[in-house]
Amino acid sequence: MKLYERYLARELFAAIALVLLALVALYAFFDVIESLKDVGRGEFGVGHAFAYVLLRLPGRVYELMPIAALIGALYALSTLARHSEITVLRASGMTTRQLLFLLFKVAGVFACAALLLGETVVPSTERTAQDMRLQAIRKVVAQEFRSGLWVKDGRAFVNIRSAAPDATLEQVRVYQFDARNQLAYVMEAKSGRYLAPGQWQLEAVVRTVLDAGQVRVEREAEVAWSSGLTPDIIAVLMVPPERMSLINLVVYLRHLWVNHQKTERYEIALWKKFFYPLAALVMVALALPFGYTHSRMGGVNLQIFGGVMVGVVFHMLNGLFSSLGIIHSWPPLASAVAPSALFLMAALGLLWWVERR
User: Fold this and answer.
1) Where are the chain's structural domains?
2) Once rounded to an integer, what is the mean pLDDT over residues 80-97?
3) Per-residue b/e over 27-42, b at no fewer than 16 CB within 10 Å?
4) Mean of the per-residue pLDDT values for the chain?
5) pTM for this one?
6) What are the residue ranges of helices labelled H in 259-296?
């Protein structure tokens, strides 16, 4: 790498890292304020609140990486332009393509870091954070409805009133249907414990069997229950799809496909896991046209403010397109890629306009 390339890379890397640190600190401050609302619930104290926020920091880093790349590159390039350094480099023969590739190299480091972080660190720290919080305030894993969690398991519909972080189930109700889609029996259990793949042990079981128009009630202290549910599938509910690992997403998607359930949300999250880190490259390409403008300090500040607004819009569009994709059943790939594609087209349009000037 040439001397001027090392200099530009160092300036870009330092600016992006500094902006990322500032954004993570800002979001952590708001997370602390939010988590303090749980202080006093059960055994959840101030120490739990800070530990919860610290464990969620890797997720924040992953989430804010593209925005930091945009604002950091915008700041570095605007500063270089204000000192006429980019003008000197261009006059020395450096082309827009060369500068863009240099930006991609720097952004690629952050994109790879985001990908590794999202696959290795974020799922485990997010799970640990939720485990700690739920155990401290003595709450359940998930309750999608007032009646608890509903899961389809083959020909059965399973209602779990509550699930502890260790996958211990409480107030389990199984509605089993036969091959003719007729209700065969309803089994209620006070609690359930995982034994081995495909095997659970239910305790204090009451089974209501419907047989040829006759109804009989059976009571047993313990029942071995065969089910495709696993603690991993139940634990998925503790981590948002966007912060799950690819392996967990694929496992849960397979479970949903087997049971013929809607998968749009998790398919969108799967595609976003592939393309979201690459958004950092799109963001630095969007910042490049501003590096060709000469501005005084006030102009630089205005550009930085504009970069913050663009980053906020990008963050909002990511959530918006995911929600719209689920509501309108758009192709998951299109919903995941649309925000980055829109910003990439904007970046290419601005670069074309700058080159034509």
Assistant:
1) 3-138+264-356, 149-230
2) 82
3) bbeebeeebeebeeee
4) 85
5) 0.74
6) 264-275, 279-287
